[in-house]
Amino acid sequence: MKQSCVCGICLFRYPCVYLACKVEEFNVTITNFVSNMPQFEPQEAVDIILSQELLLMQMLYYHLTVHNPYRPVEGLLIDIKVQYTHMICRLFDHHYHHHHHHVISGSSDYKRRRPNT
Predict the structure, then answer these.
(1) Are 49 and 33 in contact (CB under 8 A)?
(2) CA–CA gap between residue 81 and residue 73 (Å, rounded)
(3) What is the distance between the alpha carbons of residues 49 and 12, in angstroms, rounded to a whole number?
(4) What residues contact residue 31 under an 8 Å CB cut-off, 6+ apart?
(5) Fewest CB within 10 A of the end CB: N or C in the chain?
(6) pLDDT in the model for residue 6
(7) Which pLDDT value is given to residue 99?
(8) pLDDT at 2
(9) What is the helix, strand, coil percentage profile of the chain, to 5?
(10) According to the model, what pLDDT value does residue 89 have?
(11) How far apart (Å, rounded) are the C-alpha atoms in residues 11 and 52?
């Protein structure tokens, strides 16, 4: 280690900042994060941060909420089903009215022409 700290306090600030980045959804990899810590060797910095991250969360009584993709995907599938159903209904209505109109017109034309033949 190139820098010594009193009671390891300066070492503890890096896991705090890295955890804060995660909380604020500021996506930074551990590799990029430690590249901004020139006073430490990269692997040493990674080890320091990752070894203290869980301890820090315990000290803060941190509660993790894990979000899985199932609910958003289920919502997407419902949206697709609804949109697809509406699209099919519109196509069916358009086809039915268009076809029904021709059948009615054709019938009335046939009835009108019949007396003349």
Answers:
(1) yes
(2) 12
(3) 8
(4) 42, 46
(5) C
(6) 47
(7) 54
(8) 45
(9) 75, 0, 25
(10) 77
(11) 9
The HSE-up count of residue 107 (CA atoms within 13 Å, CB side) is: 6
Whose CA is closest to 76, among 88, 86, 64, 84?
A: 84
Six token digits for residue 86: 């509406």
Amino acid letter at 7?
Answer: C
CA atoms within 13 A on the CB side of 27: 0
State how far the alpha carbon of 79 is from the alpha carbons of 76, 89, 93, in Å. 5, 15, 21
Here the tokens at position 49 are 């941060």
Listed residue (51, 19, 18) closest to 35, CA to CA: 18
Separation of alpha carbons 73 and 67, rounded Å: 12
Encoded tokens for 88? 């099919």
- pLDDT at residue 100, rounded to an integer: 52
- What is the amino acid identity at position 85? T
- pLDDT averaged over 10-residue windows placed end to end, the chain, 117 residues: 51 85 87 86 89 88 80 86 81 64 48 52
Angle between helical axes of 42-59 and 9-23 (0-180°, round to 10): 70
